[in-house]
Please model this.
Amino acid sequence: MDTTFSHMHGDGSVTMVDVGGKAETQRTAIVAAVVEVNARTLDLLKRAALPKGDVLTTAKIAGIMAAKRTWELIPMCHPLALSFADIRFEIQDAPPSIRLEAEVRATGRTGVEMEALIAAQTAAATIYDMCKAVQKDIVIRDVRLLYKSGGKSGVFTAPGAAANTVSPSGS
Model:
C-alpha cells in the first residue's frame, strides 16, 4: 500500500504538486447535484415569479464564475486556463427539485474535477440563495463526480451516471 501523499512532505508540511513534467491532455469533468425544493417554490421558479429574479440564469453564471476561480478557494489547486464551463439544469416535478450538472474542460497537466465540483456546488448554493425568501428548508444533495477523462488515470464514469445525465445545452 502506498503511504505517500502527493500534497505533503515527510515532515507533514503541505505543498502544491509539481505537474510540470506531466503531459498535457484534454481534461473533462462532469459533476451533478440536486436541489430539493417544495412544490410551491418550484412553481414560482417555473413561472419566473421568485422575488430575487431569474434563478437558473443567475445560478449558471455563478457556477461558471466559480469554476474559473476554484484555484483561489482550494489551497493546493492549480490555476487553469479553462476552455469550457457550463451548468445545465433539469427541473423535476416529482419530487420537486432542480437537478444540475456542471461540465468543465481544459487542456492541461492536471484534472478539472475540482473546478466542476466547485461549479456545481456554487450553482446549487445560488439556487438556494435565490429561493430562500420563500423557502428555508431547501436541501442540496447528491453532489458527485459523474465523469472525468484525460490524464494518466484515463476515463472514469460513475455507476449509473449515463442514465442520469442532463442533455447538453449545445456544447
